[in-house]
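User: Small ask, check this?
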Amino acid sequence: MSARFEEVQWLLIDIIGDLLAPNQVFVERGDGKIANHELYMPINRMCLTQIIICLCKFDEIYRHYHSEFNLLPHDLLIKVKGIKQEIEKRNVYSFRSTYIGHAFKKEAGKQSPMTADEIEKGFNKVLSNDQVAFYDWIFPLDEMDRNGTSVVEVLNEAMQFFTTEYSLKPRL
């Protein structure tokens, strides 16, 4: 049984790091100096794509380790379930499968490249039309805005619970 908790711990640690990295890049690139730079859009798209992939990974982890997550304290479990519900509400999986994983769309048996408008509409659904709020949902950049409800904070709290409750060794 403890092996499964260790697996969850390690997976959460990886996801937390993989979610923090694009947020940090966004902060470093979001100072206005690069907004007009030709690489701004590709860098931003790379950051968002990484976050979307991580959210899909979390969803898979939650489904696979559902019984372990159900042992979290009730308040924490509610927050974890809230992340999963938000992933579903934003159609993150669908976006990943349609726009991130493929260059072409299939309609009526034909393949054609996706247009910039189609990709932007897909991103806007995932971002709820507010990119900064999306990054803050993942992990607020301003310490004053951190209240324990961001994706990173909740997953870190869950990871800490498993580590402490089941006497797991910290992973380096």
Q: What stands out?
A: Residues 2-91+131-165 form a domain with the Four Helix Bundle (Hemerythrin (Met), subunit A) fold (CATH 1.20.120.1060). The radius of gyration is 18 Å.
